[in-house]
């Protein structure tokens, strides 16, 4: 189910820094609301994950992220394998992203100054999540597409999510092939649901 044309146009015209701010603030609000104040525990962990995923999913370019994470192995995969890899990696990324915000729910986001020119089609939005002396730095890499700005990588404290997965995926493909990687991703995604 896609966004209605006026909503789709509205999202398409949002600047990348405003989009990251909006998504981050909405996700942080949800995680705070889902936390029992007296204990700090989550009321309904699975519901929160679903809610967070609904917010972030439309703004990620999972196909590009999968291609980047697979590197040279992407071209070796059949179309069916590429589709399966994209679907499984999408689920893994959504679970990971949701999990990060759940863990960091007591942190406060601070958005760094952002500049771009009208011609820019690839940008990085920077923010920090802070709690007392702890600071976690994020760089959200985005590309301008026909559907608006889409996230294609996230860097956490200098570590690229896509590059980290590229190393892991390459080792797994060398060990057990593309189908072995698909099976591994599927297994991780099933374990996350438990």
Describe the structure.
The chain has 194 residues and is an alpha+beta fold. It is built from seven helices and five strands; from the N terminus they run H-H-H-H-H-H-E-E-E-E-E-H. Residues 1-9 have low confidence and may be disordered. Helix 4 (62-70) packs across helix 6 (79-103), helix 4 (62-70) crosses helix 7 (161-193) and helix 6 (79-103) packs across helix 7 (161-193). 56% of the residues lie in helices and 19% in strands. It is globular and about 45 Å long. It has a single domain, classed as Tgt2/MlaC (Nuclear Transport Factor 2, Chain: A).
Q: Could you list some keywords that capture this structure?
A:
194 residues, alpha+beta, Nuclear Transport Factor 2, Chain: A, 5-stranded antiparallel beta sheet, 7 helices, globular, disordered N terminus
Topology:
Blueprint: H1 5-12, H2 16-33, H3 45-56, H4 62-70, H5 73-76, H6 79-103, E1 108-111, E2 122-131, E3 134-145, E4 148-156, E5 159-160, H7 161-193
Antiparallel strand pairs: 1-2, 2-3, 3-4, 4-5
């Amino acid at each position: 189910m896609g966004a209605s044309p006026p909503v789709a146009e509205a999202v398409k015209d949002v600047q990348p820094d405003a989009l990251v701010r909006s998504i981050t603030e909405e996700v942080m609000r949800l995680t705070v609301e889902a936390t029992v104040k007296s204990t700090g525990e989550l009321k309904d962990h699975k519901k929160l994950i679903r809610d967070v995923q609904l917010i972030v999913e439309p703004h990620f370019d999972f196909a590009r992220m999968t291609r980047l994470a697979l590197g040279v192995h992407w071209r070796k995969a059949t179309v069916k394998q590429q589709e399966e890899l994209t679907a499984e990696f999408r689920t893994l990324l959504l679970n990971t992203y949701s999990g990060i915000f759940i863990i960091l729910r007591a942190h406060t986001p601070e958005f760094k100054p952002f500049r771009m020119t009208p011609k820019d089609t690839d940008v990085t939005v920077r923010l920090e999540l802070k709690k007392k002396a702890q600071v976690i730095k994020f760089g959200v890499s985005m590309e301008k597409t026909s559907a608006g700005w889409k996230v294609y990588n996230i860097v956490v404290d200098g570590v690229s999510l896509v590059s980290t997965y590229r190393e892991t995926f390459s080792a797994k493909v060398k060990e057990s092939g593309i189908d072995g990687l698909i099976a591994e991703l599927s297994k991780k995604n099933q374990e996350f649901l438990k």
